[in-house]
Write a structure and sequence with these properties.
The protein is of the alpha/beta class and 259 residues long. The protein has a domain of 173 residues: Alpha/Beta hydrolase fold, catalytic domain (Rossmann fold, 3-Layer(aba) Sandwich). The protein contains ten helices and nine strands. The strands form two sheets. It has a six-stranded parallel sheet with strand order 2-1-3-4-8-9, sandwiched between helices. Helix 8 links the parallel strand 8 and strand 9. The N and C termini lie far apart (44 Å).
Length: 259
């Protein structure tokens, strides 16, 4: 019996030694990130994230929704950094539409472990949304109107067709009347520190997007080497119309950003 026990101990020690020599054979899996920070785009506010928030919260994630003022890229990045600085650990930073430009700039924050772009802009250093949009024209680009004081909004009569075609008409109508005016300069302010160059990223292409060309979205995703999914029939409001798919992509980032 004593000999049998000694043999078991020797075998266990040998396995432990082999694991140590292999370096990674017995490595523990990375702990999933639990902090998620969501950034909305132009013309809307953070309440649009509610369907995604509900799924993430139910799955045990701590979710923060940024309510940036849409008064300029610098102001909006400051609001996002304020939310990031309040996190109690690493976070996944998510942006929709113009929110993609915000997370591209704010994503260098030390709390950010990964980026998720949802039908969003991801400009490089020196690039602007407006210039990139001219290279890849979107179907509904002329639905964006400008006020005399330098703000922009979407023509309410075209909001459903161009921004939210896969949402119920009544819901799109309400959104069109509850728009946030967005400073026109946000679309022409160059990016200075593109975080996707130093952070892993995930990208969701909305294949029926009329506000950002799906081809521009694909270019952004390919250039950033993002883990990419495409949603057939999805409008620019994909974060509202396909919350399960959006939440699943965010959770994938949370699980693998620190791999």
């Amino acid at each position: 019996m004593q000999k049998f026990v000694r043999n078991i101990l020797v075998t266990a020690c040998s396995l432990a030694s082999l694991a140590g020599l292999s370096g990674t054979a017995m490595a523990a899996p990375a702990t999933p990130i639990k902090n998620i920070v969501l950034v909305h785009g132009a013309f809307v506010d953070g309440s649009g994230w509610r369907p995604v928030y509900n799924i993430l919260a139910k799955d045990g994630y701590k979710v923060t929704i940024v309510q940036q003022p849409l008064t300029g890229l610098e102001d909006d990045v400051k609001a996002t950094n304020r939310a990031l600085d309040g996190q109690d650990g690493p976070a996944i930073l998510v942006g929709h539409s113009y929110g993609g430009a915000i997370i591209t700039e704010a994503g260098v924050n030390s709390h950010v472990a990964g980026l998720v772009y949802i039908a969003a802009h991801a400009p490089d250093e020196g690039e602007t949304e407006a210039a990139n949009g001219k290279q890849y024209p979107a179907i509904g680009r002329d639905a964006i109107q400008k006020t005399t004081d330098g703000n922009t909004f979407l023509d309410p009569a075209r909001y459903h067709a161009e921004f939210a075609a896969d949402l119920p008409a009544a819901e799109a109508e309400f959104e069109s009347r509850a728009q946030f005016f967005t400073a026109a300069k946000v679309f022409t302010t160059p990016i200075t520190h593109p975080a996707w160059k130093t952070r892993p990223s995930w990208y969701m292409v909305a294949k029926a997007d009329h506000i950002i060309s799906p081809d521009l979205e694909r270019m952004y995703a390919a250039r950033a080497h993002s883990h990419t999914v495409e949603i057939a029939g999805a409008s620019h409001s994909v974060y509202r119309s396909h919350p399960k798919e959006v939440a699943a992509l965010i959770e994938q980032a949370a699980e693998h950003a620190q791999d």
